[in-house]
Design a protein that fits this description.
- By secondary structure, the chain is α/β, with parallel strands linked by helices.
- Helix content is about 70%, strand content about 10%.
- A five-stranded mixed sheet has the order 2-1-3-4-5, sandwiched between helices.
- Helix 10 packs parallel to helix 14.
- It is elongated and about 90 Å long.
- The relative contact order is 0.11.
Amino acid sequence: MQLFNSKLFQKIAASFGRIAPIAKKEFIQFIRDRRSLLVFTFVPMFMLLLFGYALNLDVKHVPTIIWDQAKSSLSRDFIQSVTNNEYFDIIKNVSSYEEVEHLINNGNAKVAFILPIDFDKKILKNENVQCQVIIDGSESNTASSIIGYINYYSNTFNLKKVKEKNSGELPFANIELVPRVWYNPELKTANFFVPGLIAFILMIMAVIATALSMVREKERNTVEQIIVSPIRMYELVIGKLSAPGVIALFAAILVLITGWIFFGVNVKGSLVLLLIYTIVFLFTALGVGILVSVVSSSQQVAFFISVIITLLPTLVFSGFIFPLKSMPVILQYISYIIPAKYYLTALRGIILKGVGFSYLWEQMVYMLIFLFMIFLASVIILKKKGLE
């Protein structure tokens, strides 16, 4: 057993000895490549400004739950008046605060209307009624729009009852909604933006840097030298991925620290869990970069393909800027094949909500499936091209 461990250790040490020179070379080349540094610095900024100002951010079809403790015709009339529009989709009627908390924690609902048991009694006595509205504030743009919709439709209901009172049809009492925004009470844009920016930077940097690094070997005709050398293919891949992987992870950490220092964005959940999800997503993005490199004949082609499959999908279909529920159904289905969607959900859950693995296990499962499929596709293509 001890002999086996000794041989295993020697193999691992020898493998790392072959990986280290490649990794060192990649770090030096990446730092010296000013073009890549400019791309990673200015392209994300430009795309964020372009899509942030150019596209419509209206929020529609918000998943909504109702806890109607009064269960009366008046309470149903109020709920109907506020939610019978394109902005709110009632997904469930609940009967406890625990259900409200669970559905908002796991992201299935974004808004909860809670009507008190004495709703009718206070209206008939001409007393003001307070109805609690709980809003998921982890997406501040969405939450701000929701508050505006709620205020508008509740005021419309109140005006309707005023007219009925003046006609002698019904005693009137003002109904006051008291919104409570969870996870982002001040609706700070930074709380919404920082997690999305982390996912965006990781995806862009990892895919483009990996693809360009691998294709560069083809253009320099050094692939044949690598094939006949004692280094194995997986060692080459690890060495090539080390620089973009570390730099992308470092960039994500810098964004997180900057958000904490300048915008007060704190990680409410587990840092260890956040790191685990980040590493899994990072390997997925690096795998996409490998896949791009093996189907690209030049750095220009690799860069073009990387931009197409990372920039637009990450911005549009991950939920970073645009609410997925407001998109046409066919586009919502497309979002299911975007790895950044699941990582961003996990980021917001850990950073803003402070939830644990029990609420985010589905995201991990999907990310691992993507990771396996992407690397499997890369290996198959490498074998067909005779590079392994």
